[in-house]
Every structure is written in structure tokens, then in C-alpha cells.
Amino acid sequence: MIPVLLLHGALGSKSQLEPLKDLLEKNNRTVHVLNFSGHSGEPYSQEGFGIEIFANDVLNYLKKKELNQVEIVGYSMGGYVAMWLAYQHPTFVNRIITLGTKFDWSPESAVREIKKLNPEIIETKVPAFARILQHRHAPNDWKELVHKTGQMMQALGEKPLLTSEILKSIIQPVTILLGDQDDMADLNYSKCVAQWLPFGKFILLPETPHPIEKVNHELLVRHIPG
After folding, report:
1. Which residues pair with 6 in a beta bridge?
2. Residues 97-122 pLDDT 10s
3. Percent residues over pLDDT 90 in the chain
């Protein structure tokens, strides 16, 4: 059976995906997880910061572990990374399942997301989240990670990587999962992405918000073949 690789979201870490990993392993799946560079204490890549760099992190991991092909489940930004990897290095990717992935990047949508990423406001208004980020990414400075993430989003807004033409060239089966309570990814655009993909499918998950910690993992596993 083809191994599963789980990819975390922006400002996230592989530890958030451990409950999903455990559930998949109970179903006799071999599961891999990794932290993107700059996340959860991992050093920043000297090549930069962004989707292309994270896809390269995945590629290096696959080569290190001698994994010739994997099925990727990408949460939020992790789904975007998975799609870019499939475009750049298709032979390594058997299938993709994305959850809550934002595909509708534009200057306007980037501004909306960046507004949520002010470290000083997070520290003042959501101190519990600031403490989570500090603990999750130590010894790295979580504020620097937030700043770099905002820059990445701005770049995506100005020039999205996954254009409709690129999506039309991705040949792997892709399932686009989106929660009906997700307030980050656009529903109609996500449906369009599934239509552009040669073998795309869209599924709306009931009673499902964006945060991975609030997702019903048993419901999610039902949509991961194997």
C-alpha cells in the first residue's frame, strides 16, 4: 500500500497532525509527517521562504526516506504545497487530498489574510495563541515566522502559483475537501479548482470549521482511500 504523507498548514507543525496520523495507522496505513523549514524549530532554508521552498522540503524528505511515491494529505497551506509538488515532480505523487486549502489568492484576499498576522495584535488580543506559537516554534522567533508568512501571502496575492492552466496540467487524482464552516478558503473557487483538475473532485464536509484541531478526524479518514 502506498505510504501517506501529511503536510501541515501555515504557522503549523507536524504535531497538529498526530491525531490523524494515529487514526490512519490504526487503519494499517504507513504515515509520514514533517515540519516545513522555519516551523517547529526547524532552521530556515537558505533558499528562502514560501511554497516552492516547502515543496523542496518535501522532495528532500522523500529522497532521504527513499519514498518513490506517496499519497499526500495537505491541510490548508500544506495542500497548496502538495499541488505545487505534483506539478513540479509528478512521479513522486500518487494522489492528493487537500483540506481547507485556500486557492483563491489575489491582492485583495492576501490583504485580508495578512491583517490577521500582526504579531503585536496577536500578542495583545489573543495571548493564548501567541503562547501556542511561541511554544510550537521554539527556539525560532514566532514573530519572525509570522512576518515571513505574511510576506509569502503577499507574494501569492500578487502572483498565485497555481493558476488555472497549471491546475489543468496536474494529472493525479485530487480530492478538494472543504468544511462548510471554513472561513478562509472560498467555496465557489474551490469548486472551480476541482473542475479545472483533470481528475479533480470536490467534497463539502458537514459541521467542519477551518482549524485542524476542530476537524472530525474520523470523517476525514473516510475520504482518504486505502
Report:
1. 33, 73
2. 999 999 999 999 999 999 999 999 99
3. 99
Which grid coordinates belong to 102? 485556500
CATH class name, domain 4-102+162-221: alpha beta
Q: Is the Cβ–Cβ distance between 189 and 161 less than 8 Å?
A: no
CA distance 212 to 99: 9
HSE-up (13 A, CA, CB side) for residue 39: 23
SS3 content of the chain, % helix, strand, coil (to 5): 45, 15, 40
**Which residue from 152, 156, 204, 154 is spatially nearest to 182, judged by alpha carbons?**
204
pLDDT band at 133 (very low <50, low <70, confident <90, very high): very high
Q: Exposed, middle or buried: residue 213 (CB in 10 Å: 0-12, 13-18, 19+)?
A: exposed
Query: Nearest-5° angle of CA 10, CA 15, CA 208?
Result: 65
Residue 225: the pLDDT is 80
Other CB atoms within 10 A of residue 135 CB: 10
